[in-house]
Amino acid sequence: MSTGSGAATFVDRYPEEASIVRQAFFVAFVAFGLGALFGVIQALHRTDILRFIPSTDYYTVLTAHGVLLVIVFTIFFLVGLFQWAITRSFDRPVEDIRITKAWLALMSVGSVVTGVTILLGFVDEVGISADVLFTFYAPLQAHPLFYAGLAVFLVGTWIAGADWFRSWLAWNAEHPDDRIPLQAFVVLTTMLMWYIATIGVAVAVLFFLLPWSLGLIETVNPLLTRTLFWFFGHPVVYFWLMPAYLLWYTVLPKIAGGRLFSDPLARVVFVLFLLLSTPVGIHHQYLDPGIAESFKFIAMTNTMFLLLPSLLTAFTVVASVEHGARQRGGTGLFGWLRALPWRDPAFTGMMLAGLMFAAGGFSGMINAGMNINYLVHNTLWVPGHFHLTVGTAVALTMMAGTYWLWPQLTNRRLYSRPIGLLQVVVWFGGMALMSNAMHVSGLYGIPRRTAEPQYQGFDFSTAFGSVAELNVQLAIGGTLLFVSALLFLANLAFSWGNPTTSGLGQTLPPALSGPDDSPRVLDNMRLWAAIALVLVALAYALPLGAIVADSGLFGPGGDAYPVTVVLNSVAVTAERLTASVGATLADVGGVLEVIR
Amino acid sequence: MNEGMVSADDGATHGDLERSVSAPPDQADVDRTLSHEEFDPKGTLALILVYFAILVGMWVFMYFVEFLGNGLTVVG
Amino acid sequence: MTGNPLRIETSGGVLVGFVVLAVVVFELRTVLGMLFGIDVSGVVYFPVALAVLVGLLVAENALRSVGSKEG
Predict the structure, then answer these.
(1) How far is B49 from chain A (nearest CA, A)?
(2) Where are the domains of chain A?
(3) N or C: which end of chain C has fewer CB within 10 A?
């Protein structure tokens, strides 16, 4: 039985929409290439293997790496994928292509403005910089263009969401009794989550950081902007993850030769993410003085509940793959794993991404524990964790998904599937090395966000091996990842040279247990959005109120830090940091104390 | 060795469709169809139990050895 | 296995299996070090581990060609 091979492709049926998806992917992959380059520079620099930039430029590199990969790459891929999913699953063209083009243009302009502002940090003569890292809260201050670009980008994503809701309303008018198709369901719940999440960052940028950077207001309250950032900063990780989940739930079962095990279970998962993604952000602030322990405890409880949808996903997705394996003739308790299409880079990439996500789930549990977090806070463990989650579960799934989507979007074959397979396997191996080294280094207390984590008169003590060995591991891993990224981009570039072919279309099979097995209330977007807002209000009203009551909307005063460190005044800068920001950054101060 | 075997198989089924020596574009063909009732995901259960065991083991280590086992860090 | 040419254990499957096994073997040293406090020198461990893995790969390949002749 051939499931739909030879059918019309997406680009055959919706050429204009396919063009939008391709453009979004193009921006995503340009950002991916640049971000990967900055990644390998850091890996080699901080391990002291190869240092060809001055350490003062490290934060420019780090900011570019973070913003280009977790804002530009992931979110442009997301909007491309979601446009494909909406058009495909509603089986209708966009309502007005001009709107669709407009939001893509807005997002692109915003990204370019923000990206260029960051990169200008390399050119001292210009005097423009934005070395504020992806976590761009005060007291770090960027040039106004950084915030302005971000705001334009955000508005673009909001219009994109509205565009998809409009498609849903139009479709619903014609199909009043139908259940929302699963792919569209994922898009709609994810965008509701995004609207709620971005309230935090929009308020932080528009009311505080941008006016502050423009000089319209003298000071901001650092704890307030931090808390508003993390209001957005945790749900954004699920915003990155949902495109990967969309591919795992709707594409992976198909390429495994099976069908999704349960559509109702999938809907429950996405509703849970909508409800629980936002009221957990304070778990990034366990060590922030100024937030009462009880609020942190609530955030921890919500976070632990958030493990549930990920565990449900592990079950549903693996069961769907097992269904494929058994349909392909697989037998035995574990023997069915041998019957899977491991030669297919799309399949293998997604499976390896899922395996890494399972490991990331463990380190995430450690991060989420209020007490045990002290063990790893601000250490290299944390980047080790999120390179497993966003850096592999998300990024590798996106690359693997691209291998499957490519013919659907272009009518061209992939240049080489063996190179694709090699690429995903190299990513997996490279990440295993780098992430392992990062986790272990973190347990030894080696800090994150540091250009030169080696100090005079102080050595990190290791339980086994040595710091030098971990550094080599990290550098080799980072280099392998960079090679893998180049293989991916080159494979795609060469694929563009392939001739167009007809009959490449693929269809997605329906779920084993369909949407009709679930109650209709699951499709009630208004209800879930309302409950999500209530949960957010419960989790955030009191802590935000307390922060403002303690030190006011604009804080107790203090200097901004446009991190333009003069080479030999690092120590002075550190002094000023500890002295004037005081309470809010006490944990940073603590690290500096240890270093001295 | 293996490479030759793989491309020979592709040649028999999909070789004419691919410019490169590679797997067929669609490996999703199935032997048999399993319905929801016929399919019992016991392999999935086994994998998840293995994962859970590893998770518990590592958490116990992190909490009791790394976290409680290390002394206080007094700064200043 | 079955008569379907898509279902044979492909070199792709062997590659993926090998890399996953290699990662597990690599992590075993971390487990030994962190959990059991056994400090195995990397200079010894990694070459030995690599030799074992390559040995397994060669053995697997030999077994497979014997199997396919019989089948």
Answers:
(1) 11
(2) 10-564
(3) C
Token pair 């058009």 in the structure block, residue: A87
Task: With CB atoms and an 8 Å threshold, state whether A343 touches C37.
Answer: no
In this structure, which amino acid lies at residue A41? Answer: I
Question: With bands split at pLDDT 50, 70 and 90, how would you rate the model's confidence at A555?
Answer: confident
With CA atoms as reference, report the closest residue to A383 among A425, A426, A436, A429.
A436
Give one DSSP letter per residue of A165-176, joined into a string.
Answer: HHHHHHHHHH-T
A386 is catalytic: yes
C32 and A CB contact within 8 Å: yes
Residues in chain C: 71
Active site residue A284: no
Domain boundaries defined on chain C: 10-70
Residue A377 near residue A320, CB atoms below 8 Å? no
Strand partners of residue A458? A455
Q: Which of C17, C20, C42 sits opposite A465 (nearest CB)?
A: C42
> ipTM > 0.90?
no
Q: Domain ranges for chain B, please list them.
A: 41-76
Minimum Cα–Cα distance from A343: chain B residue: B23
Inter-residue contact A188 to A168 (CB < 8 Å) = yes
| A261 catalytic per annotation | no
Assigned token pair, C1: 């296995």
Where do we find the tokens 């060469």?
A494
For residues A1-39, one letter each, b for 16 or more C-beta atoms within 10 angstroms of the residue's C-beta and e for the rest, the string is eebebeebbbbebbeebbebbbbbbebbbbbbbbbbbbb
**Are the Cβ atoms of A375 and B70 closer than 8 angstroms?**
yes
Q: Which residues of C touch B23 (CB under 8 A)?
A: 10, 12
Q: What is the pLDDT of residues C1-59, one digit of tens each?
A: 444 444 445 677 888 989 999 999 999 999 888 888 888 888 899 999 999 999 998 88
Q: Hey, is the C-beta of C43 within 8 angstroms of any chain A C-beta? A: no
d(CA A463, CA C3): 53
pLDDT digits (tens, 9 = 90+) for A516-526: 989 999 999 99
CATH of domain A10-564: 1.20.210.10
By CA distance, what is C22's nearest residue in A?
A: A429
* Least Cα separation, residue C13 to chain B (angstroms): 11
A–C interface: beta-carbon pairs under 8 A: 68
- Whether residue B56 lies within 8 A of chain A, CB to CB, comes out as no
Per CB-CB distance under 8 Å, the chain B contacts of C65 are: 1
CA angle, corner A362, sides to A359 and A366, nearest 5? 145
